[in-house]
Predict the structure.
Amino acid sequence: MNILKIALAITALSINIAAPACGKSEVTEEHAVPVLRVPALTAAHNAFLEGDHLTMVKRVRDVLADKNADTMAKDNARELLEKAYEATNGKLPADWTLPAGFEPIAYKQVRQEHSDGPELRVRLDGRVDDLKRMKGLALLRGSTVILDSQAGVGRFTGDGVDEDGMHYFSLETRDLPAFPEPGIMTLRVTLADGSVTEGWFISDRLAASTSPVVIEPGEAVSVKGANPVLKWVPFRSPESAKYERRNLILWLSRRSDDGLYSKAWTSFGPAADRGDAVLGGEAGLTTGDYALDVVYDESRRFGPMSLVRRSSRALSFHVTR
């Protein structure tokens, strides 16, 4: 591969990052040299131009982990990663796999809007053939523990069995003041036999800045009938990318006499430009208090991980028959 092409590609990306938004920038050594001094970044661009995306993501990881790499180099590496997602239709490879019996695990950065403002959380969702095989699940950024089921960091749920016999599990943080900074994440899966699988992925551009807007029903209103109509504004986050897979989830829960909520009705499918739905299905809703969540997931793949930007709107209302 012609090293001049590599250098030009690096320089061009550097200028895009360093240039002011209001105008053009000339090619100068001030922009190019700090990037070229990071060998792993040169190797990442080389691999990208060769179509070797596995080597590219590994070298991007090296840049992000390099304490001597400056901000410009790391921004350049993240920009290259985004270009690679575009080139691969949102699917990049990794150099590790999950244990047998596990489906891809989803890492989600969740922005849930309530009447009094947004809540931010991080969660892991997955499915396994037998939940008893899994002893622990953990997520770290560097030495910082974000989630750890064995240490009681986060709320673990693992009591669901789907129709195909696969066991669903999730591990979620409490409300966070902010999402973790973009960078290298470590996932650790510990099995009951003592074996440990440790993998990594790069979290970047997964924080949503807005949430869907629901038109009706309004917050805390009372609606009549077994099948209320839900209306909302079709949504796409400002951070979404064209290559990302988009799904829409409508989740309705009913409050029982003991104050706990349980699933009453759900709908899941690819997100489209629709903005209305009839709640309750054929059985309809009984009189009571309900909690509704309108959820949009925008996702990309990194090896055995699904990386998800989740935006949702939560509201409650009362139904009378």
Observations:
- The first strand starts at residue 91 and ends at 92.
- Residues 214 and 222 are 15 Å apart (CA to CA).
- The domain at 214-320 is CATH 2.60.40 (Immunoglobulin-like).
